[in-house]
Write a structure and sequence with these properties.
The protein contains ten helices and 20 strands. The chain has about 375 residues and is α+β, with helices and mostly antiparallel strands. β15 and β16 form a beta hairpin. α1 packs parallel to α4, α2 packs parallel to α7 and α7 runs antiparallel to α8. The protein is globular. The chain starts with a strand and ends with a helix.
């Protein structure tokens, strides 16, 4: 199971990196402990810079064909539209945010990887240890009975950890993660879309807290409600539908619920993303609040930037300076994304009547100024 680059984690970031490296003639092995893909929609928003990166590995066109192109968003308060934001000018090729369930995104990326190398992905295999020998890196692999390839170890020139926010390998390498917690709790779910909003994203700025709504393929709409406390055992589809109705006047049909998830928000940024011949990517390097949908996109952009560094190192060049620049630039990007997520969450917190009216008026005033509106659209779409 040896390869030039070993990748721990076969989620969207690990699969994208594998496809990008294979296109450059680099051999890879992706170790994914899940035998089957999670069918929850989970992350849905794909921003223009990420679509440009995905186009380079020839999967963006299929994604755009299947997904919903969100070309604009609107802010609503107490039943009135207080501002709109168009994404027409954020990108020449992709003037929209694409909504596509994560499992389908992963399927398309996996199909691309397997088209380039049918043996690149090893499912049912978990990387349990790392040994860096300066010139190579060797990983211990726990390949279970149902693994798609046997083996207890693999050696490569580079190891990439794309194994998520709770990466045990990151902890085993002694890389500290500096975390922040926030007083923000959310309940979200997907329901059949009974609104007239079509392909628009809608933010409801209400006294009890924000309600966010996004279209999905198949006539489905996601609803995200900010809670005042962590969701309890009673927080089912009916409860979410009632909260949405209470704040917006719209009642999703609980019988059509296809996904339900509650989450509390924290963020974390690894103090190092490079440790010897190991590189951290995606949530293993930076966990960002889901509000704003930046996390998966940030991981893809990090993987995109890593590809030329990895290719140069494999060609015999000293990667030290390039890895240092990579680490600095990705850390800056993570800090910026965290700041944007914090602004997004702040805009959604409940406020007393007078302060809510001031905030709503501020949103309306900003939306009415074309230059400010365009700047905000670029920030929200990670441009």
């Amino acid at each position: 199971m040896d390869a030039d680059v070993l990748i721990a984690g076969g989620g969207p970031v690990g699969l994208y990196l594998a496809a990008a490296l294979l296109q450059e003639g680099v051999s890879v092995r992706v170790f994914e402990q899940r035998q089957q893909r999670n069918r929850h929609t989970r992350a849905i928003g794909i921003h223009p810079p990420a679509l440009e990166a995905l186009a380079a590995v020839r999967v963006a066109s299929a994604m755009v064909q299947e997904g919903v192109r969100i070309r604009s968003g609107m802010a609503v308060s107490r039943g009135k539209t207080v501002g709109t934001m168009a994404f027409d000018d954020v990108s020449r090729d992709f003037p929209f945010v694409l909504a596509l369930p994560q499992y389908r995104t992963e399927q398309l990326l996996e199909e691309r990887v397997l088209a380039l190398d049918p043996g690149a992905i090893v499912r049912g295999a978990k990387v349990t240890g790392v040994r860096d020998d300066a010139g190579t890196v060797t990983v211990a692999v726990d390949a279970g009975a149902g693994a798609t390839a046997p083996g207890r170890s693999a050696t490569g020139a580079l190891l990439v950890l794309a194994d998520g926010a709770r990466s045990r390998l990151r902890d085993a390498l002694g890389v500290p993660m500096v975390r922040k917690t926030y007083p923000d709790h959310y309940l979200m779910g997907d329901f059949d879309d009974g609104t007239d909003y079509g392909d628009k994203a809608v933010l409801f700025l209400e006294p009890d807290g924000i309600v966010e709504s996004f279209p999905l393929p198949g006539g489905v709409r996601r609803w995200v409600v900010r809670l005042g406390a962590p969701a309890g055992p009673a927080a089912g589809a009916g409860h979410l539908a009632e909260l949405v109705h209470r704040r917006t006047g719209i009642r999703p049909d609980p019988a059509t619920n296809s996904m339900l998830s509650a989450f509390n928000v924290q963020s974390g940024i690894a103090q190092r993303t490079v440790a010897g011949r190991t590189v951290l990517l995606g949530d293993a390097a930076h966990e960002i609040s889901p509000i704003g949908g930046q996390g998966m996109n940030l991981g893809w952009l990090g993987a995109r930037d890593l590809v030329p560094v990895a290719c140069a190192a494999l060609a015999g060049e000293d990667p030290g300076t390039q890895l240092s620049h990579f680490e600095q630039s990705r850390r800056r990007a993570a800090v910026l994304a965290r700041r944007q997520a914090e602004i997004n969450m702040m805009l959604g917190r409940p406020l007393p009547g007078p302060l809510l009216r001031m905030r709503t008026a501020g949103v309306a005033a900003a939306a009415a100024i074309p230059a400010v509106n365009q700047w905000a659209a670029r920030r929200f779409t990670m441009n």
